[in-house]
Amino acid sequence: MLDINKQQGESLAMKNLLQQIQQIKDKLTGNNKSDKCSQYSIDGVIHISQDGKDYILSDLPAGFVVKGDLYLNNKGLTELPDLSKVTVEGDFLCEGNELTSLKGAPQKVGGSFRCRDNELTSLTGAPQEIGGDFWCYDNQLTSLIGAPQKVGKSFVCYNNKLTTLQGAPQEVGGSFGCENNQLTSLTGAPQKVGGDFRCENNQLTSLTGAPQEVGGDFNCETNLLTTLNGAPQKVDGDFSCYGNDNLLSLHGLPEMSEDREIYCNDELMVKYGCSSTEAGSICYSDLMVAPVYQNELRISELRQKKHEENKANQNKFKAGYAAFKKKQNEDRE
């Protein structure tokens, strides 16, 4: 069996070598008619071939447009070649290297940009607009400053050392994942997310700053929440707050469809008298008619009404006092 595997590996290596040789022959003889970009290496130097011409990647002219994908993953890079004036129409991948910076990255990427599994401490140098996904997870990031501000699909930054979401994109067409960090706040998060929003396994004490609209599920499991104040206004998927042991109420939940599930600790299910439809979940429609939850809503409405009355009275007093002082000054004159 070992001999067979060895033979297969040698055969594959020979096949790849022959393909590279053929690519070089085609370039030299002009037989390469494809206008799409292809890439290959000679003595560790990365070349690309496009429109029948051959280029060294590190010497691409300013304004050059790569008509396809550019793969620089798993090449042992400690820094990127200067592609800051180059546009990549497809995906740009630099995963699995030893990068500490994105200096030199292309400033326009039509597809996805993936820089996961490096040693990045900053996103400075990243493109500001990405047509596809932006994956920067499994790095050493403490901040998202420098991140793209518009991402067409998903933005994933989990497994870093983030303490804040300041600098995060404000438009995310797909999902946003910032789980497994050291976040204490969601301030700076995008305000509208087309897919799921995941912030579990952090140190959140509040949901203030969370997106107002989430097109998929919202997951804030295993944090330090004591209240759901600040939660999104609307979630199209399920809502999960399981593992927040000091969370004593579900008041503050977003608007959801009647058939959606709320995943929470058993103590909360007992409190509201709702039977679990799945492991550790309550159906949204059941919760909305639970007497205890209805009572919490009424108390909250009364408190809000009282707060508004007090605020109105304070404003009325301030206006009256200002008018009194004005009349007093006029009488003195």
Please describe the topology of this protein:
Blueprint: H1 2-29, E1 38-42, E2 45-50, E3 53-56, E4 65-66, E5 70-71, E6 87-88, E7 92-93, E8 108-109, E9 113-114, E10 129-130, E11 134-135, E12 150-151, E13 155-156, E14 171-172, E15 176-177, E16 192-193, E17 197-198, E18 213-214, E19 218-219, E20 234-235, E21 239-240, E22 261-263, H2 266-272, E23 281-283, H3 284-288, H4 291-332
Parallel strand pairs: 4-6, 5-7, 6-8, 7-9, 9-11, 10-12, 11-13, 12-14, 13-15, 15-17, 16-18, 17-19, 18-20, 19-21, 21-22
Antiparallel strand pairs: 1-2, 2-3, 22-23
Explain how this protein is built.
The chain is an alpha/beta fold and 333 residues long. It has helices at residues 2-29, 266-272, 284-288, 291-332, and strands at residues 38-42, 45-50, 53-56, 65-66, 70-71, 87-88, 92-93, 108-109, 113-114, 129-130, 134-135, 150-151, 155-156, 171-172, 176-177, 192-193, 197-198, 213-214, 218-219, 234-235, 239-240, 261-263, 281-283. The strands form 5 sheets. Strands 5-7-9-11-13-15-17-19-21-22-23 form an 11-stranded mixed sheet. Strands 1-2-3 form a 3-stranded antiparallel sheet, covered by helices on one side. The chain is globular, with a radius of gyration of 28 Å.
SSE topology string: HEEEEEEEEEEEEEEEEEEEEEEHEHH
Number of helices: 4
- Portion of residues within helices: 10-25%
Name the overall outline: globular
Name the structural class.
alpha/beta
Entry keywords:
333 residues, alpha/beta, 4 helices, 25% helix, 17% strand, globular, disordered N terminus
